[in-house]
Amino acid sequence: MTTATPEQATAPVPPRPDPVRKKRRRVDMRQYGILAALAVIIVLFQVLTGGRLLYPGNVSNLIQQNAYVLILAIGMVIVIIAGHIDLSVGSIVATVGAVAALSMNSWGLPWGAAVALSLLVGALIGAWQGFWVAFVGIPAFIVTLAGMLVFRGVALVLLTGGTISGLPRAFNSIGSGTLPSTGTPDLITLGIGALASLALVVQQLKGRADLRRLNLPRERALSFVLKTAIAVVAIMYLCYLLAYNRGTPIILIILATLVLLYSFLLSRTVFGRHVYAMGGNLYAAMMSGVKTKWVNFFIFVNMGFLAGLAGVVSTARAGSAVASAGGSFELDAIAAVFIGGAAVQGGVGTVIGAVIGGLVMGVLNQGLSILSVDAAWQQVIKGLVLLLAVAFDVYSKRRTGR
């Protein structure tokens, strides 16, 4: 048996590390890793293309060409967080596009009513699939696989002539139009950027103040300031590029609205908490009183609604409806969600992450196209990026577990 010496007995006990301070020093690799990857990809292609990637026209095209992926990714991340998958969204895009074109060209509806009808059709398709998943108990993989076949067939039946074109200009502007411009540079676009930057700073400061008030862990001040400054610079630079092109794309306003709305839905509402609870532990969520059947039902109604919106946007940008529209859209959306940090098992993911994942895919497509890389190699590269993203997710979980 050993006894303490007088020096040891009187020696001050080293203070235990403050758990809050310890958490402050840790960097969330899953949160910042995808942002760093997007920045690296942009810089890489900016160098390889001789500065052409960030030409104002190319930036505007990047937003408009990838709008459908971003819209679908916002809905798909909710589906995947809940532990499901949806393979039918590409076929729904084709079906809704056909309905939109027919309603304007053959049924005589004004373009606004045609858009409303298209969104309703998308929501009804989602309700149909949600019924089988939620109340009958058929796995979402099987239901949406059947939906992929069924609604692709419906699109072919509706578009017996192959293509419907000659759509109203106001409708086409949804996918390819811009807000009214004041000239070059467009002051409206610069003003939108300034307001968005101010709103971001206020929101970040409020969130940090709430954490301080509740005595919860916060990221270090330097990291917080640096992150916010980079975000403001990125917003203003994007608006600067758009101001010297044609102004703010209409679809960018739609996307920004969706990001804000669905970020609030997932993080600030009971429905969002229930979605995360079901993805984390379905049995525990059921025992806690979560009405899992109705949550699953509305998840697919929402996915159908957003797929309908993506169908409207893609049809408007193309200026016509074709039965082959939406091919591989579901794979692009799923890839964007996983690249953006969602967990394969469910329970993890954010709307912002899914959007960033979609931008990664979009920048890859844009950069490789500018470099005239063969389409086959583009598929290879995108597949490898998806694999690396999921591998990074697995590594992050193991590192956190240790």
UniProtKB/TrEMBL annotation:
PANTHER family: ABC TRANSPORTER PERMEASE PROTEIN YPHD-RELATED-RELATED, XYLOSE TRANSPORT SYSTEM PERMEASE PROTEIN XYLH
Signal peptide (from-to): none
GO cellular component: plasma membrane
InterPro entries named in the record: ABC_transp_permease
Intracellular or extracellular location(s): Cell membrane
MF terms in GO: transmembrane transporter activity
Provenance organism: Arthrobacter bussei
Protein name stated in the entry: Xylose transport system permease protein XylH
Keywords in alphabetical order: Cell inner membrane, Cell membrane, Membrane, Sugar transport, Transmembrane, Transmembrane helix, Transport
Bilayer topology term: Multi-pass membrane protein
Annotated stretches, region: Disordered: 1-22
Function text: Part of the binding-protein-dependent transport system for D-xylose. Probably responsible for the translocation of the substrate across the membrane.
